[in-house]
């Protein structure tokens, strides 16, 4: 039997009449699939605990792809997310479920995830937290890119110059007009430090992370993104 682990539920779905199948992100074992037997039963003490964004202590047993949940308890109240922050939290959970390899330790990424949820709860604009987490996720996946040097010359980037992103190579100084693959040196410096002081830098960071994450996410649409767009359309009608 495994010891107690700090965890968050990424996603759950009903199984049989009273059970749940959980997709969990744990501190030491990464993403784990758990069978929570009887968790939906009327008298189950777990009924209200196994929710996204609630910090949990969990214990499980068993071998293979699906483990059996043996114990779960909330470490505290759920991180309070609402509105855009809530949809942003669902997005983080979905990309973790889609991208992170099961049964693989992502110790630093676990704390990056906690920090992202905390930032979402504390700030009205979710974009900086999302971009910082996406960059942390890329680092954890081994996606190495040098934001601070031109891949062609090796020279430090110039904040006033334009650079084009070339997959498998990096950022190369360019005279091309602005397009989806071009970034200013100022954009790259913001990406390197993960500090975005302007709306333009945030937009550039979003372009880059979408380009970089696309091979990992594949062509299947993100449900969280579709739900967010649907909510946005309803609010503007």
Automatic annotation (TrEMBL):
<dbReference type="GO" id="GO:0006310">
    <property type="term" value="P:DNA recombination"/>
</dbReference>
<dbReference type="GO" id="GO:0043590">
    <property type="term" value="C:bacterial nucleoid"/>
</dbReference>
<dbReference type="GO" id="GO:0006302">
    <property type="term" value="P:double-strand break repair"/>
</dbReference>
<keyword id="KW-0227">DNA damage</keyword>
<protein>
    <recommendedName>
        <fullName>DNA repair protein RecO</fullName>
    </recommendedName>
</protein>
<keyword id="KW-0233">DNA recombination</keyword>
<comment type="function">
    <text>Involved in DNA repair and RecF pathway recombination.</text>
</comment>
<dbReference type="InterPro" id="IPR042242">
    <property type="entry name" value="RecO_C"/>
</dbReference>
<dbReference type="InterPro" id="IPR012340">
    <property type="entry name" value="NA-bd_OB-fold"/>
</dbReference>
<dbReference type="InterPro" id="IPR003717">
    <property type="entry name" value="RecO"/>
</dbReference>
<comment type="similarity">
    <text>Belongs to the RecO family.</text>
</comment>
<dbReference type="InterPro" id="IPR022572">
    <property type="entry name" value="DNA_rep/recomb_RecO_N"/>
</dbReference>
<dbReference type="Pfam" id="PF11967">
    <property type="entry name" value="RecO_N"/>
</dbReference>
<keyword id="KW-0234">DNA repair</keyword>
<feature type="domain" description="DNA replication/recombination mediator RecO N-terminal">
    <location>
        <begin position="5"/>
        <end position="74"/>
    </location>
</feature>
<dbReference type="InterPro" id="IPR037278">
    <property type="entry name" value="ARFGAP/RecO"/>
</dbReference>
<dbReference type="Pfam" id="PF02565">
    <property type="entry name" value="RecO_C"/>
</dbReference>
